[in-house]
Amino acid sequence: MAIKRTSSNSLVNATKMSTGFSSAAIPNAPTIGAATTTGQTTATVAYTAAVLGANGVTFTATSSPSSITGTGSSPIIVTGLAINTAYTFTVTAGNANGTSTASSASNSITTDDSLNSYESIATVTVGSPQATITFSSIPATFKHLQIRAIARSSTAGGDAWLNYRFNSDTTTSNYSNHNFFGNGTSISSSYNSGDDGNLIGRVMGSASGADNVFAPNIIDILDYANTSKYKVVRNLTGQDNNGSRNLVGLSSNLWRNTTAIDSISFTTANNFAQYTQFALYGIKG
Amino acid sequence: MAAGSTYTPIATLTLGSASTFDFTSIPSTYTDLVVVVNGKQSNALCYVRLNNDTGSNYSNTSMYAQSGGSYGPDKNANTTSFYSGFVNASLSINIWNIFNYANTTTYKSMLCRGGNNTQLQADVGTWRSTAAVNRVTIGVLAVGNTFDSGSTATIYGILAA
Lengths: 285, 161
Known about the structure:
The structure holds two protein chains of two kinds.
Chain A lengths: L2 E5 L2 E4 L17 E7 L5 E6 L9 E7 L4 E3 L4 E3 L7 E10 L2 E2 L9 E2 L7 E8 L4 E6 L8 E8 L8 E7 L8 E8 L4 E7 L5 E5 L11 E8 L8 E9 L7 E9 L8 E9 L4 E7 L2
Antiparallel strand pairs in A: 1-2, 3-4, 4-7, 5-6, 5-8, 8-9, 8-10, 11-22, 12-21, 13-18, 13-22, 14-17, 14-21, 15-16, 15-20, 18-19, 19-20
Chain B lengths: L3 E2 L2 E7 L6 E3 L8 E8 L4 E7 L7 E9 L4 E9 L2 E6 L4 E7 L9 E8 L3 E9 L8 E5 L11 E7 L3
Antiparallel strand pairs in B: 2-13, 3-12, 4-9, 4-13, 5-8, 5-12, 6-7, 6-11, 9-10, 10-11
């Protein structure tokens, strides 16, 4: 084992020192790796232990500013950071004899913005009546999707269900739904699969007296980008025209397909009327 | 494709004494409003009033399920507020959604989903006005019309791309 003395208090070796020479030595500084934001208040910090010198037993990442620390092996998890704040990190190695000097500073990271977990992706507002509303090229970068819609039919008397289709999948047997709804005087439930299996919400018809009334829908598509599970969809929906043509409902839908969803289209029995609006949002996990 | 972050908190109110929640001077810069109320009172429905309009311009369609196994429908026309949500002496959560609130062309559609340890509630409602909403008042349909002290409410704005 080739050993050389480099200073009065530091012994190094061509390989990791584990002899009695290091028993009183403190470790050398680790080499900093990548710092990565993992949430609103958390980050990870990678490092490589020094090859030369005494073994480090405890590795500590320290933030700048605020000197918030985390310990562990690489990558070290640091918690308790402030939201939407820039940090760099250094890492030290410690053993029974003391603590190393700090590594050089990491790259700068910024923790997630507290408001950054819900993003608008795209919106369709109907000008002249149209049969289909489509969102395509949906990025796979979110955990869940939400669609907030107000919908009205351009055809008189056209109170109708809102239907959806994922990825242009026309295999009706891939869709099913359960519904629980009330019309103001009674409560009922339904199950549909196959041809009607992709109904999900309500579209207000433009019958007399309802030209300014729209049916609201809040549709959640859970874990839409995963490729190992069928997709679950839920909706809170309704329509209310001052005591008539009422319906409030909750629906749970299933698309029996493990493909990531990258397009969604909506149709109804008649065209969508002017001012109908569908807004697509992404929710980060 | 994503256009940026939204779901922005506009204001939060915490009641120091029994009162209603009254959000005023709401900016018109969003697409939808969401109001989350964490409140309590004796068993009662809640109400939402927009722009302090006390005219008979509201209606609702509702359904509920109770812890005893009963459930039922409800509807009201020409009311002076949107009957929706439910509170009791335990802490209750109700979330109201007011769609396209700043537009001056259509009536305003609302959805509410809420409840507590005794009742689940879902409501849809319409305010028959084309005015932009700049004020939201939420109270309780019980004596005093107020939530208990300590109840909180936050109003959020959601901006569509």
